[in-house]
Amino acid sequence: RSYGPRGERWLLSPAQHQVHHSSAARHQDKNCGTVFAVWDRLFGTLYTTTATPEPLRFGLRDDSQGQRGASLLLEPFAWLVARWGRGARLGATGAARWGARLPAAAAGLFVTGCVPIPRGLDRVAMLEAFSACATDVNTQFQVSADALAAATRAYAEAPSAERRDAARAAWTQAFDLWQQAEILRFGPIAEASAPGGRALREQVYAWPGTNRCLIEEQIVTRGYEAASFEGAPTSVRGLGALEFLLFFTERTNACPPDHAVNAMGAWASLDAAELERRRAAYARALAEQVSASARALVAAWAGPAGFSRALTTAGRGSARFQTQRDALSAVADGPAHLDTDTKDRRLGTPLGIVGCESESCPEALESPYAARARLNVRNNLRGARRILLGCPAGGDLGLDDMLEGAGAPSLAQQLRTRFAAAEAAVDAVEGDGLARPLASDRARVLAMHSAIRELTSFMKMELTVPLELPTRRVAGGTD
To answer: 147 near 176, Cβ under 8 Å?
Structure first.
């Protein structure tokens, strides 16, 4: 019987006691109390249930088989001694905090009959670090988006090759930062179904949904000038449409002959100068939208009601996250897009591994007009590094530090090794794009895919259990 999430924060129910005996990793070391839930709440081991029972399997976890009873009883004490011996890793704040908690923990042994395993790193500090890293790259993107808006404004006011080149350079800088920011898809940038998600990613960059023919239809009709254009489909807006407008200079269009832009002669009536003027004006409208979305993203993180506060106060009055575990799980879901977006879409489909019916599908490469597909993958890794290995703005604290704090230093080192291998594989391919390497150096592109697959497979298989972080992400297409 469950008392429900609210009641079970104070009294331990029969359902919670069953969870304590479950062999599932997510239930390990949970609900150690007998009657009151106060000790479990104090040490972060409380697991609440609902009226719908979870499927449970009782007994020892698989990796406990073969251990003697004495070693199982002594294991938590050995773990605690080992963690305290590496107190330098905690930092002064974390060590002091655990020093204050040890007497309470000792008293709790007699009340609960169970040793809650402490964590070697302050989870509040980790959440603050993740928030700082995301805020840092989002703010950098906002600055670059504002610069892009200014450059396209100048280009639209007086179209010229020089001003177009300046707008291209501004787009490149903003796009590189976006490729780092969007891979951290948690909080306002994430889909609306995610915690705190506002689907702001789609407003900035809806790849692979950009549609060239529909963009060219907007050029003919000047739809970008209409007041209703703010609500136009994302397939004709954002950084993807901007790339086409700034980097494609031919007079051809991608619409079929019987499409209105061709059948009625509207496209043919545009001379080269008029076509450039409309492309420049369209680019200006899009850049201003991207700049506004970038400011909205930064604002959504900031302030008393912002996502940053909800994240960093998780389990301590947060309006979004009941527990720190929920918040850390949401953060970990962000770099998991390396699997579905980077490995599968950016590499797997062009290589013909997933979602391609031919030996290869080079037409599926990202950034075909600016030719930056390889750099996009590299920037995805730079973004993911902020959470996996930390960033300067967050004190270089990452999930690797959490693994060490959880008593899994070997896994932390494996994460660093696999990440370095992925970076090296991407850097081994020459050029900014991937069209030429895909045709002439396929083995190196395959090595990129393989190295990132090794990294994302490790993330899915090895991170969730020691860090107790269930994930919402689905498996990638080549697993």
So the answer is: no
CA 97 to chain centre: 30
8 A C-beta contact, residue 277 and residue 284 = no
State how far the Cα of 225 lies from the Cα of 453, in Å rounded to an integer: 44
Helix (H) or strand (E) holding 6, with range, is helix 4-7
pTM attached to this predicted model: 0.75
Determine which helix (DSSP H) or strand (DSSP E) holds 154, and give its type and residue range. helix 123-157
SS3 72: helix
| Secondary structure (DSSP) of 424-466 | HHHHTS-SS-SHHHHHH-HHHHHHHHHHHHHHHHHHHHHSHHH
Structure tokens at 262: 């061709």
CA atoms of 307 and 33, how far apart (whole Å): 33
Question: Tokens for 96?
Answer: 């002091």
Buried b (16+ CB within 10 A) or exposed e, 49-68: beeeeeeeeeeeeeeeeeee
Could you tell me if 266 and 220 are in contact, meaning their C-beta atoms sit under 8 angstroms apart? yes
Q: What digits encode the pLDDT tens for the residues 134-176?
A: 999 999 999 999 999 999 999 999 999 999 999 999 999 999 9
Of residues 334, 383, 373, the one with CA closest to residue 351: 373
Residues 6+ apart with CB under 8 A from 210: 235, 236, 238, 240, 241, 244
225-253 pLDDT, tens digit per residue, is: 999 999 999 999 999 999 999 999 999 99
The greatest distance separating any two alpha carbons of the chain, rounded to the nearest whole angstrom, comes to 87
Alpha-carbon span 119 to 107, nearest angstrom: 18
CA distance 19 to 14: 9
Helix/strand/coil for 25: helix
Cα distances (Å, whole numbers) of residue 251 to 148, 281, 392: 24, 17, 46
- How far from the centroid of its chain's Cα atoms is residue 422's Cα? 17
